[in-house]
Amino acid sequence: MVESRLVGPVRIVGVGLLGTSVGLGLRNRGIETILADASPTNLSIAIDYGAGRAARDGDQPQLIVVCVPPDVTAEIVARELDAYPNAIVTDVASVKLAPLAELRERGADVSRYIGSHPMAGRERGGPLSGRADLFIGRPWVVAAHGGISYQQANAIDDLILDLGAVLIEMSPEDHDRGVALVSHVPQVISTILGRQLANASNSALNLAGQGVRDMTRLAASDADLWVQILGANAEPVRDILIAYRDDLDRFIDALADPTAPGARRKVAEEMIGGNAGVARLPGKHGQDRQFSSMIVMIDDTPGQLARLLHEIGEIGVNLEDLRLEHSPGAEIGLVEISVLPEVVARLTDELAARGWRIAG
Question: Residue limits of the ACT domain (predicted)?
Answer without folding.
Answer: 293-360
